[in-house]
Automatic annotation (TrEMBL):
UniProt keyword Transport, yes or no: yes
Keyword vocabulary terms for this entry: Cell membrane, Glycoprotein, Ion transport, Membrane, Sodium, Sodium transport, Symport, Transmembrane, Transmembrane helix, Transport
A GO MF label: monoatomic ion transmembrane transporter activity
Catalytic activity as recorded in UniProt: iodide(out) + 2 Na(+)(out) = iodide(in) + 2 Na(+)(in)
InterPro entries assigned: Na/Glc_symporter_sf, Na/solute_symporter, Na/solute_symporter_CS, Sodium:Solute_Symporter_SSF
Protein name listed in UniProt: Sodium:solute symporter
Main location class: membrane
UniProt membrane topology term: Multi-pass membrane protein
Record-level GO BP terms: inorganic ion transmembrane transport; sodium ion transport
GO CC list: plasma membrane
Family according to the record: Belongs to the sodium:solute symporter (SSF) (TC 2.A.21) family.
Pfam families per record: SSF (PF00474)
Transmembrane segments: 6-24, 45-65, 77-99, 120-151, 157-178, 185-206, 232-251, 272-297, 317-337, 378-398, 404-422, 429-445, 457-477, 520-540
Length: 542
């Protein structure tokens, strides 16, 4: 079969229409900003977890990861190997404090601890970083449309932008999460269908894939080199990847906002378990698509496209049966929508909560802020559209998104760590650490030949160090500034809430044991995943 057929188009249109209809159903239940941005704080943890997974399996992953696998096999999996450990930090430290504070935007917490200037600067950095990354996310599915339809990329960007903006404006966070649950399964179905059809097209099936992968070094996921210029060494993944994911999942409003929509800390922690267990296998799935495609191209003597982001969609529309190609491309759209809706909603939340309601229109009605939130969503959709026009010059799309975030998030994580763990840190130190931390990342990444994965490590280290010592030049903060932010204050508050909820103090110990078991399970999963990669590499090289 050649090309994208009418039946494929009908499958795709049916899916897009279904998601748009589902999203619109939630708009009528929104009466205030809390409904729009946090779903009334009553969304169950399992749904939030699947929503986060859908965002991680974005069109960036669906398109970019097969290109990674085609080019380098499993080597880049070390970027994600530390996700279970990052989730442990979030479960034990950041999420209890964020959720207990009852905030819309996590940058509100920095104002309570360090004052309005720190909050404003941090929120502004988020808007810049996430706004740029959203443009890349918009470019990825537009590229797919251009490949399968023959339209120009710019035209497809505009089409996708109109659809995404309309859907997000109508739905709010409830629509974001519940449509993501549906889209998660569509995305997995598309990925598994791709693997099945690819493998069955090979004469020797999985045997061909394993033989090619072993013979070409595709299964060499663990590079023990201590050379910091080696981008995907194990050490870059363990150290740099750890801070990358703690910073991303812990200081990016687009991730934390969904966690804040849960009814309790326990539900919020439960949502993180899903990502902790499934993100590595999910990335492995998409990398294997790339390895299978490399096997196919090698067997048929084919030349890959210049842009490896086009690798999977080009194969899908040229080789898949009619209808199945439409389903796989629908999976790409599922991935794209799950990323765009959450990004635009969080950008709107920070714009309205951290800027508009404080500096432009304070003390307005809920109806006014709800209208402003929807207008802010439109603004950020247009902003992302303009940036998407230039995203094609950024190279592989996953790396582009991660590198954009690495310029900012490490220093921002350092600021939150100062707020949570250091009694002595103050506003002067926090701002100095944040600014110097970012400058250090830009300096190191531009002047030294080291892996970009270390950017967040540099940002965190410099931000905390500079922030603490500069804080010593100004008076220590008052007790009131510490009371609802510091880590040591979290346990008593959480215990009181749990005891009141259950009317039985024994629940405190039970919840503590559950949390401990969850963290032990995540650590064991990290060890299992690392061990499996080592065994696969040993088999391939044996």
């Amino acid at each position: 079969m050649e090309g994208f057929t009418l039946f494929d188009t009908l499958v795709l249109i049916t899916y897009i229409s279904l998601i748009a209809w589902i999203g619109s159903r939630f708009g009528k239940d929104q009466h205030n900003p809390e409904d729009y941005f946090l779903g009334g704080r009553k969304i169950p943890g399992w749904a939030i977890g699947l929503s986060v997974m859908a965002t991680q399996a974005s069109a960036i992953t669906f398109i970019g990861a097969p290109g990674w696998g085609f080019e380098g096999g499993l080597e880049r999996l070390v970027t994600f190997i530390n996700v279970p450990l990052a989730m442990i930090v979030l479960i034990l430290v950041l999420v209890p404090i964020f959720h207990r504070a009852g905030i819309y935007s996590i940058y509100e917490l920095l104002e309570r601890r360090f004052g309005p200037a720190t909050r404003t600067l941090s929120a502004l950095l988020f808007l810049i970083a996430r706004g740029l990354a959203t443009g890349v996310v918009l470019y990825a599915p537009a590229l797919v449309l251009a490949v399968v339809t023959g339209w120009s990329v710019n035209l497809t960007i505009i089409i996708m932008a109109v659809l995404a903006i309309s859907y997000t404006v109508m739905g709010g966070i409830s629509a974001v999460i519940w449509t993501d649950v549906i889209q998660m399964f569509v995305l997995w179905l598309g990925a598994l269908l791709s693997i099945f059809l690819l493998v069955t097209s090979l004469p020797g099936g999985w045997g061909d894939v394993m033989a090619f992968g072993a013979g070409s070094g595709m299964f060499n996921a663990i590079d023990l080199s201590f050379d910091p210029s080696v981008t995907y060494s194990l050490w870059a993944g363990l150290l740099g990847g750890f801070f990358l994911h703690v910073a991303y999942f812990g200081t990016d409003q687009s991730q934390i906002q969904r966690v804040l929509s849960s009814p309790s800390v326990v539900d919020a922690q439960r949502s993180l378990l899903i990502g902790g267990y499934l993100l590595i296998p999910q990335m492995l799935l998409f990398l294997f698509i790339g390895i299978i495609l490399a096997t196919y191209y090698q067997q048929h003597g084919l030349t890959p496209p210049d842009d490896l982001n086009e690798l999977l969609p080009r194969y899908v529309v040229s080789a898949f049966p009619s209808g199945m190609a439409g389903l796989v491309i629908a999976g790409v759209f599922a991935a794209a929508m799950s990323s765009l809706d959450s990004a635009l909603n969080s950008l709107s939340a920070v714009t309205v909560r951290d800027f508009y309601s404080r500096y432009i229109k304070p003390n307005a009605s809920d109806a006014h802020y709800l209208k402003a939130s929807r207008l802010a969503t439109v603004f950020w959709g247009l902003y992302a559209t303009l940036f998407a026009f230039f995203a094609g010059n950024l190279g592989p799309v996953i790396e582009a998104v991660n590198q954009i975030g690495s310029w900012f998030y490490g220093a921002l994580l350092g600021t939150f760590l100062l707020a949570i763990f250091s009694h002595r840190s103050n506003a002067r130190g926090a701002i100095a650490g944040l600014v110097v931390g970012m400058l250090s990342v830009w300096t190191v990444s531009s002047q030294l030949d080291i892996s970009w994965l270390y950017n967040n490590t540099v940002g965190v280290t410099v931000s905390v160090t500079v922030g603490y010592f500069v804080s010593l030049t100004a008076p220590a903060p008052s007790r009131d500034q510490l009371s609802d932010v510091m880590m040591e204050e979290a346990a008593p508050d959480m215990q009181a809430v749990l005891a009141a909820r259950a009317d039985n103090a024994q629940v405190i110990g039970k919840e503590a044991r559950v949390t401990r078991r969850r963290c032990i399970g995540l650590f064991a999963w990290f060890c299992i995943m690392l061990g499996m990669l080592a065994l696969l590499q040993g088999w391939a090289n044996g």
